[in-house]
UniProtKB/TrEMBL annotation:
Residues 6-168 form the Actin-like protein N-terminal domain. Pfam families: ALP_N. Coiled coil: none annotated. Gene3D superfamilies: 3.30.420.40. It comes from the Bacteria. This is Actin-like protein N-terminal domain-containing protein.
């Protein structure tokens, strides 16, 4: 049995926690794998059964076998895309990714064929939170049979809490800050793979009307580059990863099959997507003059913050970028799960 755990099933990466090393105040251990879940044909599922699989596991969902884990992009047909669909959290792929994370959590806890997770915290973007959070909590709670037929593990999740994604970053910041919450009006900007989320709050009070999400972020930037060269690359996760890395690390070029593509030619396409997302955000937020601080989180934090500073130079001095932005939300979710667990024990 394990106590608190958290999973952040993003459009780009799935992030999850393994608990704290060295007791309650120890470092929170985290890990991630790509949000890619190729469907295995029955033959491949059988073959996978016989092999040692450090790079992933077979996950059955509604009679279909998926392969999920760090090695998933290599397991597929080479045609696995990360589709940014609004009903993501209700999809079978999402459940396959969530179960893949539960499998890795069980590995991390050295569990045998059974594991009970007492509290699991998950997140949803603001665009889908209100319509999807109850359904997601229902799907995630209870029993999950994971692994190839005949060699399955049973993971039981006792209770689930669903958090608005950017709240994770705020909670994580407060936690790292010795429990001191941020003062004044805080705006979290979370450019992920699929969505740009922004969230304004004062203390623990959210400003819902000014918060929101837009379904274009880092993947849309990479797709815009791919579309100008070969639109079929959208379905090739490995090539999209290469373009994404070139954007994130501001590389001069990226290579596919020995051919080098200079990024300078595609910068405008990327900038257009960033501008479009920022425009949506600023329209909904209204003026940022009353914002006391901006916290950038999510894997696109570096790219989006530099673009925003070009447009609004004055916000730079009130901005900070999370040290490990890919994992800040999941770390915050984990703190929520720990609190829920502690509260349940004090009854
Ligand atoms: N090791 C890494 N270090 C820094 N950035 C990374 C790393 N791996 C991936 N990224 C970046 O993270 C971005 C994805 O961010 P993130 O993981 O926050 O998205 P997500 O949470 O999966 O998506 P969403 O929030 O839209 O569902 C990618 O564009 C990629 O460039
Ligand atoms: Mg995210």
């Amino acid at each position: 049995m394990v106590g608190a755990r958290a999973i952040d099933v993003g459009y780009f990466n799935v992030k999850h926690t393994h608990g704290r090393s060295g007791g309650a105040d120890g470092m929170l251990q985290v890990a991630s794998f790509p949000s890619v879940a190729p469907v295995l044909k029955s033959g491949t599922a059988r073959k996978a059964e016989d092999e040692q699989q450090p790079q992933g596991c077979v996950v059955p969902v509604n009679g279909v076998s998926y392969f999920v884990g760090p090695g998933a992009p290599q397991r597929g047909s080479g045609l696995e895309s990360r589709i940014v669909a609004e009903d993501y959290a209700a999809s079978d792929k999402y459940l396959a990714l969530l179960r893949g994370a539960l499998w890795r959590i069980a590995d991390g806890a050295n569990a045998g064929t059974e594991l009970v997770v007492r509290r699991l915290a998950l997140g949803l973007p603001l665009t889908t939170y209100f319509e999807a959070n109850e359904l997601l909590a229902q799907r995630a709670a209870g029993e999950h049979l994971i692994g190839p037929e005949g060699n399955q593990r049973r993971v039981v999740v006792e209770k689930v809490r669903v958090v608005v994604q950017p709240q994770g970053a705020i909670i994580n910041f407060g936690f790292l800050n010795g429990g001191k919450p941020l003062q004044g009006l805080t705006m979290v900007i979370d450019p992920g793979g699929g969505t740009l989320d922004w969230y304004l709050s004062e203390g623990t009070v959210p400003y819902w009307e000014r918060s929101g999400a837009y379904p274009k972020a880092m993947l849309a930037c990479a797709y815009a580059v791919a579309d100008r060269i070969n639109p079929r690359w959208r379905n090739q996760a490995a090539i999209i990863d290469r373009i994404d890395q070139a954007i994130r690390e501001q590389k001069p070029s990226f290579a596919v099959q020995g051919e080098h593509y200079p990024m300078a030619e595609y910068r405008r396409a990327v900038d257009q997507i960033l501008d479009e997302a920022i425009d949506q955000m600023l329209t909904m937020v209204g003026s940022v003059d009353d914002v006391d601080q901006i916290l950038f989180t999510g894997g696109g934090a570096g790219v989006l913050s530099s673009h925003l500073y070009k447009r609004l130079p004055k916000v730079k001095k009130i901005s900070r970028i999370d040290a490990d932005p890919v994992f800040s939300n999941v770390r915050g979710f984990h703190v929520v799960a720990e609190h829920d667990l502690a509260a349940s024990k004090s009854w």
